[in-house]
Specification:
Blueprint: H1 2-29, E1 36-37, H2 41-66, H3 74-105, E2 108-113, E3 118-123, E4 126-127, E5 135-143, E6 155-160, E7 165-169, H4 176-181, E8 187-192
Parallel strand pairs: 5-8
Antiparallel strand pairs: 1-2, 2-3, 3-4, 5-6, 6-7
Helix pairs in contact: 1-2, 2-3
């Protein structure tokens, strides 16, 4: 009975792992080095790979248990629901952060090339008018939970002298090179367990 219970789970996990791995490999294959950063499918897949894999593995258990031939015991249901809850705890925060970051930066384009001293931010195709000297301070927020699925989600807040605040998230690109580029601006570094922008 145990082999009939776990076999569909293992098969579903292997298929999900292969499909997500192939999607990640394909998006990496067709990406190119650029100095203009947007929320691309490749970047989103890179950030969402492990959370989606965990979520898929957790949710794939439910149909396997519900559609199994012999009646399933209460212990097996409890084990199944516990596994689903565990995977939701692992992947849920990363999925929420991804949704939040996408709402903040889905129309944002960052043009950044430090060798040419180029740093521009566009919202919905319109350049936001500011120069580096207009920046009052930079706040860099990184994740303290290094071994979690949401550890790669961080953000950078640009506070301008006129009161505007521009938020750039890790959905666009890795933000550490940009923080280094802006080292002449007064900076504040924060570390949080969950980087909600």
């Amino acid at each position: 009975m145990k082999s009939t219970f776990f076999r569909p789970l293992i098969e579903a996990a292997v298929v999900l792992f292969l499909v997500l791995g192939a999607a990640r490999w394909l998006t990496g294959l067709f990406s190119k080095r650029t100095h203009v950063y947007q929320t691309t499918a490749a970047r989103q897949m890179r950030l969402l790979f492990w959370p989606l894999l965990a979520l898929g593995a957790g949710l794939s258990v439910l149909p396997a248990v519900a559609m199994s031939g012999p009646p399933v015991s209460g212990f097996e249901w409890a084990l199944t629901l516990g596994f689903i809850a565990f995977t939701l705890v692992l992947s849920g925060p990363a999925l929420l952060l991804h949704l939040r970051y996408w709402t903040l930066n889905h129309d944002t384009t960052l043009a950044f090339q430090p060798t040419e001293n180029r740093f521009e931010v566009y919202e919905a195709g319109q350049r936001l008018p500011f120069d580096r000297r207009d920046l009052a301070r930079v706040v860099r927020v990184t994740c303290r939970a290094r071994r979690s699925f949401w550890a790669r989600y961080d953000y950078l807040r640009l506070h301008l002298h006129d009161g505007r605040v521009i938020t750039l998230t890790s959905l666009l690109t890795e933000l550490e090179p940009l923080a280094v580029f802006l080292r002449s601006v007064p900076a504040e570094r924060r570390s949080r367990y969950w980087c909600w922008a």
